[in-house]
TrEMBL record:
<dbReference type="InterPro" id="IPR002401">
    <property type="entry name" value="Cyt_P450_E_grp-I"/>
</dbReference>
<comment type="similarity">
    <text>Belongs to the cytochrome P450 family.</text>
</comment>
<protein>
    <submittedName>
        <fullName>Uncharacterized protein</fullName>
    </submittedName>
</protein>
<dbReference type="Pfam" id="PF00067">
    <property type="entry name" value="p450"/>
</dbReference>
<dbReference type="InterPro" id="IPR036396">
    <property type="entry name" value="Cyt_P450_sf"/>
</dbReference>
<dbReference type="InterPro" id="IPR050196">
    <property type="entry name" value="Cytochrome_P450_Monoox"/>
</dbReference>
<dbReference type="InterPro" id="IPR001128">
    <property type="entry name" value="Cyt_P450"/>
</dbReference>
Length: 379
C-alpha cells in the first residue's frame, strides 16, 4: 500500500546544539521547514491542498503581473530599485544565521543575544513577525466579514486560516504566523536565487539563450500583451531543460541536513542515532561519478532522450523523499513565466569586467552580484 508523504517518518531536522536549523527557530518557529514528528505530519497534511493544481492555476496572473513590473523597471534609466524593508530584513536574518552556524562561539543563546549581531537578529525577527501578523489579521477580518471564503479561488493564506484536521481543529495563531514566515522566506529567496543563476548561465551561453528565445517567440507569437497562459506552461520544453540544468549547476539551496533517527552504516563506518548528516546538493550535482563533465552547462542532459538516464537521487534541487519541497511546482511555474517574459523582450550578455563569485549560505548567493548587459531585442 502506498503511503501519503505525511504518513512516512522522515529523519528529523537537526535542531540540537550545533544544528543549523536551531538558529532559524526564533524566526520561522515550528513551521513546515523546521518542525518534526507529528507536528510536521499534521502541517504537511493540512498544507498540501494549498499546492493543488487548481489552487496554483490562478497564480499565473500574479507571475505575469510580477514579470510586467520587472520589465517596466528595466525600461527606466537610472531607476533606483529599492528593496522592500521586509526583503532587506529576511536577507539579513539568513546572513546572520549562516554566520552564527559557522561560529561555535555564537551558538549559546546567552552569548549571541549579547552581541550586536544578536540584537540585530532580534530586531529583524520582531519586524518580520509584525509584518506577517498584519497580513494575517487583515485577511482574517476579510474572511470574518464574508463569513466563509466566497472568492472563486482560495489562496495559500485562505487555506491556512480555514484548514481543519480530522478533529475539526485548525492552526493556532502562532502556527499560522510560523507558516507565513516560512513560506515568505522559502518561497522568495530560493526562487530569486534560482532565476538569477539561470540568467547567469544563459548569459554565459548565447547559443542556448537563442534557442530559448526561438521557442518563446513561437509560443507568444500571436499575443500582443505577451501574457503567458496556464496552458502555455508545458510548451516551454527547451526553457525547462535550461532551468533544470541551471538548478543542477547552481542549486538555489546548496545543502540540507538531518539528524539520524537510527544507526546507519556508510562506507563501513557506523553512525549512531542523533548524528548530524549534511547532504550537499551542490557537491552531488558536481560529482563526476554522478554527472559526466559536471562543470559544463548542458541543457541536453534534460532532453526527452536523456532524462531517463538521470537517477532518482542524482538531481535534487528540491531535495527528495517526504521532506521534499512542497512548493516545487509553484517555483517551476514562476521561473518559467519570469524567464520567458524577460527573454522575449531582452537578450543578456555577461559583463566581461565582472567576476561572479559564489557564496554558500542558506541559499546560493553571489556576494558581489551577477552583472549582465541587457539589450532590447529587435522583433
Ligand atoms: C527554486 C525554488 C525552490 C527551491 C530550489 C527549493 C528547495 C527546497 C529544498 C531543498 C527543501 C528542503 C529543505 C530542507 O530539507 O531543509 C525545501 C523545502 C521547502 N520548501 Fe522549497 N524550494 C523552492 C521554492 C519554494 C517555494 C516557491 C515554496 C513555497 C511557496 C517553498 C516552500 C518550501 C517549504 C514549506 C519547505 C519545507 C517542506 C517540508 O519540510 O515539509 N519552496 N525547498
Amino acid at each position: 500500500m502506498a503511503l501519503a508523504l505525511w504518513e512516512c517518518r522522515p529523519e528529523p531536522k537537526n535542531r540540537g546544539f550545533g544544528g543549523g536549523y536551531r538558529h532559524a527557530l526564533p524566526w520561522l518557529g515550528e513551521g513546515l521547514l523546521i518542525a518534526g514528528g507529528q507536528r510536521w505530519a499534521r502541517s504537511r497534511r493540512l498544507l498540501t491542498p494549498a499546492f493543488h493544481f487548481d489552487i496554483l492555476h490562478p497564480y499565473i496572473n500574479i507571475y505575469n503581473d510580477s514579470a510586467e513590473l520587472m520589465l517596466f523597471l528595466h525600461t527606466g534609466y537610472n531607476t533606483e530599485i529599492k528593496r522592500h524593508p521586509y526583503v532587506e530584513a529576511v536577507t539579513e536574518l539568513s546572513k546572520i544565521i549562516d554566520i552564527r552556524t559557522r561560529n561555535v562561539l555564537l551558538h549559546p543563546n546567552f552569548v549571541f543575544y549579547l552581541t550586536s549581531m544578536g540584537k540585530t537578529f532580534k530586531k529583524h525577527c520582531d519586524y518580520v513577525h509584525s509584518v506577517a501578523k498584519e497580513v494575517i489579521d487583515r485577511r482574517k477580518n476579510k474572511l470574518k466579514e464574508a463569513k466563509s471564503p466566497t472568492k472563486k479561488y482560495l489562496d495559500f493564506l485562505d487555506i491556512l486560516l480555514t484548514a481543519r484536521d480530522e478533529n475539526g481543529v485548525g492552526l493556532t495563531d502562532l502556527e499560522i504566523r510560523n507558516e507565513v514566515d516560512t513560506f515568505l522566506f522559502e518561497g522568495h529567496d530560493t526562487t530569486a536565487s534560482g532565476i538569477s543563476w539561470i540568467l547567469y548561465a544563459l548569459a554565459s551561453h548565447p547559443e542556448f539563450q537563442r534557442k530559448c528565445q526561438e521557442e518563446i517567440d513561437a509560443i507568444l507569437e500571436d499575443k500582443a500583451d505577451e501574457k503567458i497562459e496556464w496552458e502555455d506552461l508545458p510548451k516551454f520544453e527547451y526553457l525547462t531543460q535550461c532551468i533544470k540544468e541551471g538548478m543542477r549547476i547552481n542549486p538555489p539551496v546548496p545543502a540540507v541536513a538531518r539528524a539520524l533517527s537510527k544507526k546507519m552504516t556508510i562506507d563501513g563506518i557506523t553512525y549512531l542515532p542523533g548524528t548530524m548528516v549534511a547532504l550537499n546538493m551542490y557537491l552531488l550535482h558536481h560529482n563526476p561519478t554522478v554527472w559526466k563533465n559536471p562543470e559544463i552547462y548542458d541543457p541536453e542532459r534534460f532532453s526527452k532522450e536523456n532524462i531517463d538516464k538521470i537517477g532518482p537521487f542524482d538531481f535534487c534541487p528540491f531535495a527528495a523523499g517526504p521532506r521534499n519541497c512542497i512548493g516545487q511546482n509553484f517555483a517551476m511555474n514562476e521561473e518559467k513565466v519570469l524567464l520567458a517574459r524577460f527573454l522575449h523582450r531582452y537578450t543578456i550578455e555577461l559583463d566581461p569586467t565582472h567576476v561572479t563569485e559564489k557564496a554558500f549560505a542558506l541559499v546560493l548567493r553571489a556576494p558581489n552580484g551577477i552583472k549582465v548587459i541587457v539589450k532590447k531585442r529587435k522583433q
